[in-house]
Predict the structure.
Amino acid sequence: MREFAEHIVACNGVKIKDILPTGIIEGSGKPRLTDGQASIRDKYLELEHREDCGKKNVNIYLNKFVTNIFKLNKRHKDLLEIAAYIFAADRRTYRGKPDDDEYHSWSRAFHFHINVRDYNFWNKQEIKDLLEQALCFMTGDHSYKFKFHKAGSDFPTNIFDTETFVVETPDNLRVALFSGGIDSLAGAIELLETTNAEICLVSHQTGLPGIQNTQKTLYNEINKLYPGRCSHYKFRCGLSDTPSRDETQRTRSFLYTSIAFALAKEYKQNCIYVYENGITSINFAETQDLMNGRASRTTHPQTIRRLEELFTAIAEEPFTIHNPYFFKTKTDVVEVIKTNNRLDLLDSSVSCSTTRNKEPGNTHCGKCSQCIDRRFAVYAAEVEKYDENGLYHFDFLKDDLESDVIKKLLTEYIRLAQNFAKQDIDGWYEERSSEIVEMIDFIDGTTEYERLDKLYKLCQRHSEQIEKSIKRMRDIYDSPYATCKPKSFFNLILGPRSYQQEIKTTIIEKPKIEKEVPSKGLKKLVKETCESLIKQKKITEVSNETKKKRPI
């Protein structure tokens, strides 16, 4: 049996020495290490954001969260700190190398010990279950367990504790998440253009100046265009003593929505808006080897529903998370900005998923999946001239494709779109059934067929737009009279149609015994089912019979 990486995390004043057996604790209060066990230290983490409670290694700026002064109730303070510590632990621990796609290699098991104010609420098993289930699905990790401890007294967050202050709630207010990317920018513009609502934009910042500058620049531009109608609330949280070890940031979605929920409830709102196009939200795995780990679920319909259930329990009244862009593609979202004549804001938005090691002067790496998706979308919408003002450090349309990683990303991105184009609804469902089943009950539609039809049409439209984008790229950059560049996107990817080639697989010689060979789809389903059962601890190991040359 292969082990998952296990991490025991003590937070908010809880000490590792107080929760582990004395036999494995040194006099210093740190876990005792034997020869060859240096790596075990990563198993035990102590996270603290207060200066007066030991070594501070996490920044959680509750007192700088809002510009207005009002009181957050204890339960909401707890939620923000729980979400912040989960995010910090996620960033502090290591998932594995980018090519570690196996579920066992990539998933982690967390056990959190956290001091809370509203102990009786958080210690309910049904609340722990909602929290654990939402996080496991969202992150793809093996497990999350929580042991809550009763805090001796409230922690000082004075800016929230003015008892006499009353929040002024506008009659028509919308609370929306704001990352500074194209989707959240388009959502803010559409709200301001099509309604008379005042909008409250909510952001999370880790302390990286690039993210802060992007959000500040866009907000200032929006505020000039729509004076007096929007406000911007920023919650800063991140590691303070060490660079992050994991860059996938899946728990950021939980922190992000928790911030918006807490703020919405202070404004007596029971809904927040999340703007993310459906292709990104679903994040179909381009190849089946990515099924276990790398397909993100941060705004997946099931993630949204599980968070709604958690927030409803915390609020003790119905709470909803609305994604108006779920049935839009990235190109559709760019078209929203184009239709509302706000293309001058496009190059101020940032879609890049690389959060560090950027080159000076460039806001986008140009190589990650989000950069690639953005490039295709702006060409499909025919607005590329607004998006090429030195934004990209690497330009796959002009630069040589030296890296195998960028070649694979581009090939698989186009392959996915082409596969959609070739499939009728039955073939599409058969190939994607396991992914579709995970979301079909959590999206809008009166019948299952209506929901399937809407999803299928979304994929078809995405495919058509990618084809349009490629044609436009060729018209602009691949003139028949242009000098051939051997390592160009057009020569390496489009010329040989590499996205039409079968993915190479290891061919195993058939045994002499005649037997029925399971289909690829059945093998995939069995593999996923086994992993799910391991994750739920219903089985502890999988027999190795399939590797032996005899019938199962």
